[in-house]
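CORE FACILITY INTAKE
Project code: CF-77B
Contact: R.S. (postdoc)
Sample description: multi-component assembly, three entities in total
Requested service: structural model of the whole complex
Turnaround: standard
Below are the sequence entries exactly as provided by the requester. Do not edit them.
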Amino acid sequence: MAVIALDRAPAIALPRGIRRSRRTVNATATVAITGLFVLALVPLGSLLWTAASRGLARFDVEFFTNSMLGVVGGGGGALHAIVGTGLITGATILLSVPVGVTAAVYLVEYGRGWFKRTVTFLVDVMTGIPSIVAGLFAYAVFSLILGPGMRSGVAGALALSLLMIPVVVRSSEEMLRLVPDELREASYALGVPKYRTILKVVLPTSISGIVAGVMIGIARIVGETAPLLLVAGYTDVMNYNLFSERITTLPVFIYSQWKNKGMDVAAYDDRAWTAALVLIAFVLLLNLVSRLVARLFAPKAR
Amino acid sequence: MAPGGSLRGGNKNGERAGDRAARSIATAAGATILVALAGVGIFLLARGLPALRAGEGDLPDGATNFWQLAGPLAFGSIWAAALALLFAVPVAVAVALFITMYAPRRFAGPLGAIVDLLAAIPSVVYGLWGLMVFAPLTAGLYGWLGDRVGWFPLFAGKTSATGRTILTAALVLAIMVLPIIASVCREVFIQTPTLSVEAALALGATRWEMIRMAVFPFARSGIVSGAMLGLGRALGETMAVAMVLSPTPFLMTFRLLNSTNPNTIAASIAQNFPEAYGMEVNALIGLGLLLFAITFAVNYLARRVVARAHPGG
Amino acid sequence: MRSRLLPTVGAAALTAALALSGCAANESGPDPSSTPSDTSGDSTAESPQTDPTDDGGAAVSLSGTLNGGGASSQGPAQEAWRAGFSGLNPGVTVNYDPTGSGDGRKAFSEGGLAFAGSDSAFGPDEIAAGGFGSCADGSGLIEVPVYISPIAVGFNLPGVDSLNLDAATVASIFTGQITAWNDPAIVEQNDGTDLPDLAITAVHRADSSGTTANFTDYLDQASGGVWTEGSVEDWPDSLQGEAAESTSGVAETIVGTEGAIGYLDASRAAGAMGTAAIKVGENYVSYSPAAAAAAVGGSTFQSDRSAGDVVVDIDRTIDSGEVYPLILISYLIGCETYADPSQGALVKGYLEYVASPEGQAEAAANAGSAPITGDPNVEPKVAAAIASIQ
């Protein structure tokens, strides 16, 4: 509010006409900026309203305890898709977090010269890889090994890892840079080798930020549809095995419920919107928790 | 003093065995990224190459060579993404300004989180929403535009009655990339040196003048790189476009309101891959390679822009 | 601080893992992931407990996993068949991935699937070339028309539920020669219907599709030369019009737009929009399962194929009776002899169920298809083909 006071006080000294036109411009800008902000929220409101109002119809116990096995028309649930999402996301985390965090350690603690510049640049490029390209890549790799008809959870996890690694590298890199050099110096002064310093001082200090970054990464990949449609496929039964057979995830479940409807159209639409609602709620939760983790467990040193 | 002489950055002199191993592991992780990207390029090239070389009769839709197929799709991707940026950048900048400069400090975090929610919604949900809710809403507006300003080349032609035009697809894309651009902008706006802000205000600048004098010059490269990031995302967005847009193969047009629209590379891959057979699969992988190359170029340009603005940074 | 964080995150992950490991309440059979799901030749799926050459069909208790995929048109019908079949054979898991006909044929010939659903059959030379992954060496294919579905010409005109249209008019609408609903060509076929002066928005499929292939084949055969683009899976580029992704996209576009018209699986048009009665001979016939089945009964089979390879040449120009020739026929494709006899027994059991009166009735209820049973021209051929599977 102090800013507003600053706005006014000195302007009084100026000629009246100029003052008014400047204030008009300022007021117009304020209105325009506020207006555009509100405008940006309109689609969000509409989306959330649509998902909530249409998704609540099937937000019931059956939806969370049943798969689609043997379901014709109404009923059934998305447990298989929820489990599939969990498994593929878990595999993606296993693939991308170690690589991502270690690469960030390289960039911050070890990297120098052209190789560091190259890796930094490639991480940027990787951030921009379209998800469908990642899916095609996973298809190209796995169809070479397993034959063209292949569908499997690991192929999906490989595609998603390509999307998640740069997010993890980016956020971890930022967090590692935030660790004050004084901490490293103190550790070195005690004769602790560099790798132990990284393991025992640098990483623990920044772990909350890294965890938060990983959660943002999960939020980024958990809604991916296109690559999983290409390589993980759709099934309506539970599948706990990432290495063979199709695994359904929630976004693919939404898409296939929308696309392959039977006579009882409403039953399929309801399931699609409920799954959408569950997915949105999950990503929301991830975002909130990551903020909470970052805040609650932030190192006091900074 | 650190063993080896520097705190961060490498120095190979006098390393212990454990340190050597740690360095190797970390470097290997960095190399993994290089290998992964090279792998993407090599695999897509290997599987796409037959289509790049194929002639008439082998390619889908009776195309005589790969570029006849790919050209209009590349055009569609770039045109839709450019339109999306045209809408998204001003709004994203305004959103970031509102959060960082206008709203009270303690609301900044929650407001940012709300805008970030837009990024949390899966693209297939955007597709459902765009098809069922948004496109029918725009149809009326397009009818009005077509009647009133149909003489303007962009709005010419028979106006779509369904609203499933490239303009609608671009608007949906704009909504999807908005939070990405806004969050980059927010970060750079916050970092505007307090000194410049206070100096501008002390000189009697209004808040808007302060933004123009202190914030924008400082943040220009950040806005550009945010926009480029958004462009990359818009180019690659698949499901929402596939579900919302009404595409026509081989079409290249700038017209915004027609039922016939150029398709995008990503949507075309998603639509045709399930039915693809033989050479068509290679052609689609070739298209994926092209899309990869385009986004690579966009990201490279974005970095160049940022690097020029902050030499050495 | 960190000492508190790691256990918290760990506990959260553990809770999530426990929650996720629960079984679906509706799945009591063997865990599908624990049964071998590789359907190629070396599959070790549990053998059925009886001799696979036994013709007992439903009496045999089968177990194992059967993977199929292909035509998305069969999706809702496969849903019903899989549910019915697993009800009879609790030990069997049947998967069907409705990704598309081309994908199904591709995956089947490379051995990724034990059977394929497809809106078009393999060509005789493709079959002669052999090399199908799931089949024994030198085995031919069986292809049976098990899913017959009328394609509706659906439209959105307030207050109008049905229109009479001949094939030439439909072709003119979709080629853009007729652009308004009160065009004389439409008005003269629809005495007494109040047709508005409203622009026509013709909606076609954006993805390649068997529905498009059958619709254009109908126009090609029946429109008397108005349609010049032949029978194609991909909508011709030269024609203007609105394109929509998948049947659902077409249905929603029509429902959302006044003045829209499109072709789509009849099950999705019923109740949601007005539908056209098409001209057959001197009459206008609305789609119905019976009229669609009659169109198959009146057609001939391709003669250059083996006994198990039952492929219909649909005659779209039938000119008498309650016949609706705008139909889609979708096939199930399998091997005559499977490399793995237990897979052969599973496929045989499943197809027997699909072609049975119960199976066809289930499909009719969930997908609005026309039963093949009761047609003396088709049923015995299909039954004989399925019986020959080994």
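Facility notes:
- The domain at 11-149+296-318+327-387 of chain C is CATH 3.40.190.10 (D-Maltodextrin-Binding Protein; domain 2).
- Chain C touches chain B at residues 72, 99-103, 105-106, 199, 201, 203, 206-209, 233-234, 237, 240-245, 249, 252-253, 256-260 (CB under 8 Å).
Invoice: internal transfer
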